[in-house]
Amino acid sequence: MATLADPDTDFSRLPDLPADVFTAPLAKPPHLGDDWLEPAQTDYTADDHQIWNELFARQMEVLPGRAASAFLAGLDKLDLSRGGIPEFGALSEELDKLTGWSVVPVPMLIPDHVFFWHLANRRFPAGNFIRTRETFDYIQEPDVFHDVFGHVPMLTDPVYADYMQEYGRAGWKAMHYNRLKALGSLYWYTVEFGLIEEADGIKAYGAGILSGPTEAKFAVEAESPNRIMLNVDRVMRTDYVISDLQPTYFVIESFDDLFRQTVERDFDRLYKNLAPGFTYANSAVIDVDYVVNRGTQEYHLRGGRGSGAAPV
Ligand SMILES: [Fe+2]
Questions:
Q1: How many A from CA of 18 to the centre of ligand 1?
Q2: Averaged pLDDT score across all residues of the chain
Q3: Mind telling me which SUPFAM superfamilies this protein's record contains (predicted)?
Q4: What tens digit of pLDDT does each residue of 6-58 get?
Q5: Buried-exposed string 34-51: b where 16+ CB fall within 10 A, e elsewhere
Q6: Residues 6+ apart with CB under 8 A from 220
Q7: N or C: which end of the chain has fewer CB within 10 A?
Q8: CA–CA separation, 202 vs 214, rounded Å?
Q9: How far is CA 271 from CA 9, 11, 93, 198, 281, in A?
Q10: Nearest partner of 98 among 151, 152, 158, judged by Cα
Q11: Separation of 192 CA from ligand 1 center, angstroms?
Q12: Rounded-to-integer distance, Cα 117 and Cα 119, Å
């Protein structure tokens, strides 16, 4: 069966990258090997731990009732409320018992093919550094708070954990077809900004929503954004916003639904049929959509971030 990932790739070591595959030219710090892993986690200062605690407390004021139950359960299972930046070794031991995943430190954004390879081996690369007080509300590169608070609790859910591994394996297939942008859109609208239907309403499971100060309320409750049921073919053709709230969120029925929609699809055929670039704007509603809420787009029409528009 043709699937999201190529079943023949051996991920036990970093696979060779074919010469015709483009990867972003990131400069590897000289002390790192091909796996881009830091030999040890940073020695955080007392203030670093205090920043974590303040970020944690701020999120916990908005997330109950808005975050997916799997995320809140994951915070509990990993005892992430104990205070201070978690030590990756102890965190990985707990996570390994639950779903076989570990958390490994990286200095910065790492090349796509290395990131995919770690995911394929159930290792989640997490930023080693923590933001400063000057960048408390918004950071360009993912730090330890975004990566560990935002992403790791979801890895305690067995189906989601399998989805993330398949995603990593899928990355190698997408590179061969030169369709990383399309697969990146799937990551964006699920792993970073995904919503899920629960018995008592729509909740957030995407790390970009869960680790930020304003997006949980906006994504779950505001009138501006569209909320559309996830359709993988459609999402992979859809553009997205990097440095502002999303004009559109995609909603899954369950993690089983997400896993089935992606892993069991014929991605060879999909990649061969995808046009280069994106077909749909990030605020578009198209005739095949199953729309949960059609947004007013008021926030973005007023100019979005930088204009002072209220996230309503
Ligand atoms: Fe992230």
A1: 27
A2: 93
A3: Aromatic aminoacid monoxygenases, catalytic and oligomerization domains
A4: 667 789 899 888 788 877 788 899 999 999 999 999 999 999 999 999 999 99
A5: ebbbbeebeebeeebebb
A6: 66, 195, 201, 202, 203, 204
A7: N
A8: 16
A9: 18, 22, 37, 32, 19
A10: 158
A11: 6
A12: 5
Q: What tens digit of pLDDT does each residue of 278-303 get?
A: 999 999 999 999 999 999 999 999 99
Cβ atoms of residues 205 and 154 within 8 Å: yes
How many angstroms separate the CA atoms of 189 and 95, rounded? Answer: 24
291 Cα to the center of ligand 1, angstroms: 26
The SS3 of residue 66 is coil
What tokens appear for 249 in the block? Answer: 């969120």
* Fold of the domain spanning 46-301: Phenylalanine Hydroxylase (1.10.800)
Sign of the CA dihedral running 68, 181, 244, 57: positive
Taking the CA of residue 225 as centre, how many other CA atoms within 13 Å lie in the half-sphere pointing to its CB?
27
Phi, psi (rounded to 5 degrees) for 198:
-120, 170
Q: Where are the domains of the chain?
A: 46-301
Question: pLDDT (tens digit, 9 = 90+) per residue, 220-259?
Answer: 999 999 999 999 999 999 999 888 999 999 999 999 999 9
Q: DSSP letter at 125?
A: E
Residue ranges of the binding site for Fe cation: 146, 151, 192
Ligand 1 centre from 128 Cα, in Å? 13
